[in-house]
Request: fold
Amino acid sequence: MRLLRDPHPRLFQVWRAALATSLTAVWIAPAVVIADGPASPGSVPPPHSGRDATSIPRLTLVDCLNIGRTHQPSIQAARASLGTAQAAQRGLQAIRLGSRLSRELPVRKQQSAHGVAAAAANLEQVRHDVGASIARLYFSVIYAREQLKVAEEISDRLQATVAVGEALLGQRGAPADLNSLSIERAKLFRSLAQSRVDEARRGLGRAKAALREAMGVGPDFEFDVPQEPLPKMLTGVEKDHIVGLAQCHRGEVSMAEHGLAISQLEMQAQAAMRRVKRPTAAAAGDVHARPVPTGSFGDDYKPGAIGLDFPTLFVGPREIRVQRAAEVAARSTAATEKARNLVTLEAEDTYYRWEETVQKIAKFTQAAKDAEELAKRASSALDSGVIQSYRDVLEILVLGAQIRANLNEALYNHAVALTELERVTGGAFPVITGTSR
Reply:
């Protein structure tokens, strides 16, 4: 019966506690972006309620990133996990003469070091995730505001067109196709435009609420975003460059590699002890604590990652325990390879999304200019009684608004693609949040 007992229970409790938090970050699959370091002093305005519009602070993207860096609970939790892992590692290193009592202790120290490195990679990963989320939602506010402007302008123009049509109805020199039916048709277009105004206003409110959460502040935190355009079109991005940066800098790959190292060291730890019942590194921390993303095989194909199968206890003769550890290492090897493949796929997909937005912006920019000029000419011609078709005026106004809305959407998707280019490369392609460093 003594063979089934841990010969040094206190020593085991020490190294298990030291590994407890560092190993939980090894097999994680979150995402990427934001610089390290505390926010600059005074960068976080205190929350106020009941302010008038002129006193509400206008936060730039840099301001929002600094606030998120300080207040986002996800970053605080990841930073605390890293600090706990580092403290636990120092506890392991402080054990003197431990190797005389336990042959596996040196291996456990190495596993703890990999666990700390994985926790650090996780912290960086969370920073990138938060930064990308903040940037994306910041641009969502600007996009919603631009769409609101388009909706309000077309609503006003249609209202004026209806008024002119009603004034010209039955008058000499009125367009030949102007009748009560065409005016009712114009009113339907106006009602549709007014509904778009309401949708845009709700979208603006939702975007600001989401940005507030991404920054990690409460609902009583009032702020606004300055009037500014979406980012200018970025050209010259190369797919192979993006893929290479992603493979070298993504946190998922780093965490998977440290997980593989831990599982490979487990073979040495099991080989160091003869007793038939030995805990594994997984006993020190729940390596399954973070969920592995599952795949989606519908219209939006998203392959899933490979999870771990790391028991907390190996029972049996030493050669059997070593063999089980080897199988765990083999699965970790597959998980690491899968992580690299998924990172590569995401980087390629992001590149193609960016490429698509660039093409759409080029397509809609000139069309929007032409449509705006044509809309002004048509409205002026109707006011002066020169135009011969009331229907043409309506179609020109509506089509012009659609083109402008499509251009705004393309610019927004381009901005989102820029945040994703930075995120998928682990911050190595700092086109957005890198400006806050």
Observations:
- DSSP finds ten helices and two strands in the chain.
- The chain has one domain: 2-436.
- The first strand starts at residue 277 and ends at 279.
- Strands lie at 277-279, 313-315.
